[in-house]
Amino acid sequence: MKMTAYPTQRHLNQILYMSAFSLIALVAFSFSPRWKTIEDNPDAIVGVWKTGEGNAMVRIYKNGDKYQGKVVWLKEPIDPETGKAKVDKNHPDESVKSRAVLGLINVWGFVFKGNNVWDEGNIYDPKNGNTYSCTIKLTSANSMEVRGYIGVSLIGRTDTWTRQVSK
């Protein structure tokens, strides 16, 4: 039997076939649904979420066939100017400026669209009294992107919320 330091044609063919098989397997598995890290579940956003700045927590829940949420915790619940509980003083409607921010429904109207996206909703920002169109995308079991925008989704701001409590 002759031994050489160089690979034979048979060895080169084996290496080529193994490399091709590995590449095909890698491509096939990368598109496989089992690689999804989160379940595509309409109720996956239900729970308590801390806003990106960490100043508030919002409980998201199902209301009929849509999802909404209300403020359940504030980092600073007392207004430093008045020494009382924060109220919705920046709302454009005078008749609701005295309502408490704690307990306020600030996200509503969301419909599950699939692919871990909830759309057709609105978000209200009590800091400035503005309401925005909003889309929510669950990026992991404990993180979601909340995008508020005016008119077109390209013109807006995305905030990442972190899950605090499930359902």
Can you characterise this structure?
The chain has 167 residues and is mainly beta. The protein has 1 helix and 8 strands, in the order αββββββββ. The protein has one domain (42-166): Lipocalin (Beta Barrel). It has one helix at residues 9-30, and strands spanning 47-50, 56-63, 66-74, 105-114, 117-125, 130-140, 143-149, 156-166. The chain starts with 8 loop residues before the first helix and ends with a strand. Strand 4 (105-114) and strand 5 (117-125) form a beta hairpin. The protein has an 8-stranded antiparallel barrel with strand order 1-2-3-4-5-6-7-8. Mean pLDDT is 86; it is low at 25-30 and 32-37.
How would you summarize what this structure contains?
This protein has one helix at residues 9-30, and strands at 47-50, 56-63, 66-74, 105-114, 117-125, 130-140, 143-149, 156-166. It contains 1 helix and 8 strands; from the N terminus they run αββββββββ. The protein has 167 residues and is mainly beta.
